[in-house]
Write a structure and sequence with these properties.
17 strands; binds pyridoxal-5'-phosphate; Aspartate Aminotransferase, domain 2; 2 domains; 397 residues; alpha/beta; 40% helix; 14 helices; Aspartate Aminotransferase, domain 1
């Protein structure tokens, strides 16, 4: 099939849910991918924050190939050794005591919502407080707690018992709490919302308020967790711990996997039969995730995210001085946003034509989520391409 045929056939047989770029990606290695015409790209979006260890990392490939020959799937009717090892490892390196495995970020958040409601049910508390400009997934429950109407249009009504308050505004949170509130959910760094970072005083204040009121703090680290921000978990930047945490994107090294982590007292609200997932934590996904966590440690990728992210953001600030088009550079580690006054989509296109893949979040914010294995030379090349693309677009505006 030619590239043109693939695109035409895709348009006929797939549901039209995505605005796809007319590229067919066929191969990936490290920080690079190649399209069906053989053109090479620096991948600074990495499957939307999934490929932290790079494409086709040999350890992930080896783990998946090895496990495929042993047992691909068996279901949670039985015990799965690799699932136990992975849960123990996630608990060892976090605040959590217990884990529920699923297959995506939305599912990890669904489990978090159900767990918080079950925990609150003994005192009749069911309301969830969420943030404006947040994103928590595309299932009905997670859309219902997503604070951006553009994703919700046409899909309501959603479950009742959800309130939204402005991000980074503690007094509004306080006013939003009621005796029926069971949990507050937020992303420490809003990803789809345009790389908006929670203030330290906000998260610390929120933790205190939750403790005072007996309300659970749920952190959605689906996009910002597992090393991306220069800490294994983004909450570590804030000196606080959540009661429930969700992770997904990079966890399986590219293999679909989500996880909901919680403290013992909260996790034990779930009883057998309360929640389940056929594929959740299956042996193949767990083998990939264990390899991912090993690579993260062995290659010091969390530290590298901090170092290289610092360098990258510093250089982006320099570029900002040159272009009036740029409003702000934001982020932590290698989760980086550059907000423009206009023209972000055109910049993304110009970058792509020059061999750099990035995307837009929240309209005018350029989003950079490169693999954590990215080298300084790759960053420098990406910066050159970005500057050329900004120049082209600035000349047209
Ligand atoms: C913060 C956050 N939560 C949840 C999700 C949903 O994850 P998934 O697409 O794996 O369901 C995303 C996806 O972008 C996300 O960024």
């Amino acid at each position: 099939m030619t590239t043109k045929q693939i695109i035409e056939r895709a348009e006929r047989c797939l549901m039209p849910t995505y605005t796809r770029i007319p590229l067919v990606i066929e191969k990936g290695q490290g920080v690079r991918v190649w399209d069906s015409e053989g053109k090479e790209y620096l991948d600074f979006i990495s499957g939307i924050g999934v490929m932290e260890v790079g494409h086709c990392h040999p350890e992930i490939v080896k783990a998946i190939q090895g496990q495929v020959k042993e047992l691909i799937h068996c279901s949670n009717l039985y015990h799965i050794r690799l699932q136990v090892e992975l849960a123990e490892e996630l608990c060892r390196c976090s605040f959590a005591d217990r884990v529920f495995f699923s297959n995506s970020g939305a599912e990890a958040n669904e489990a978090a919502i159900k767990l918080a409601r079950k925990f609150g049910s003994s005192r009749g508390a069911f309301e969830i407080l969420s943030m404006e400009n947040s994103f928590h997934g595309r299932t009905l429950a997670t859309l219902g707690i997503t604070g951006q109407t553009k994703y919700q249009k046409g899909f309501g009504p959603f479950a009742s018992g959800v309130r939204f308050v402005p991000f980074n505004d503690l007094s509004q949170v306080e006013q939003g709490f009621s005796s029926k509130t069971c949990a507050v959910i937020l992303e420490p760094i809003q990803g789809e919302g345009g790389i908006k970072v929670a203030d330290k005083s906000f998260l610390q204040g929120l933790r205190q308020l939750c403790d005072q009121e007996g309300i659970l703090l749920i952190l959605d680290e689906v996009q910002c967790g597992l090393g991306r921000t220069g800490r294994l978990f983004a909450y570590e930047h804030y000196g606080i711990e959540p009661d429930i945490l969700t992770v997904a994107k990079p966890l399986g090294g590219g293999f679909p996997m989500g996880a909901t982590l919680a403290r013992e007292e909260v996790a034990n609200s779930f009883q057998p039969g309360d929640h389940a997932s056929t594929f959740g934590g299956n042996p193949l996904a767990c083998a990939a995730a264990l390899a991912f966590l090993r690579v993260l440690v062995e290659e010091r990728l969390v530290e590298k995210a901090e170092e290289r992210g610092g360098y990258f953001r510093q250089q982006l600030e320099k570029i900002k001085e040159e272009f009036h088009l740029i409003k702000e550079v934001r982020g932590k580690g290698l989760m980086v946003g550059m907000e423009l006054y206009s023209g972000a989509r055109e910049v993304v296109k110009e970058c792509r034509e020059r061999g750099l893949l990035i995307n837009c979040a929240a309209g005018n914010t350029l989003r950079f989520l490169p693999p954590l294995i990215v080298q300084k030379e790759d960053i420098n090349r990406a910066l050159e391409i970005l500057a050329e693309s900004l120049r082209t677009v600035a000349n047209k505006i």
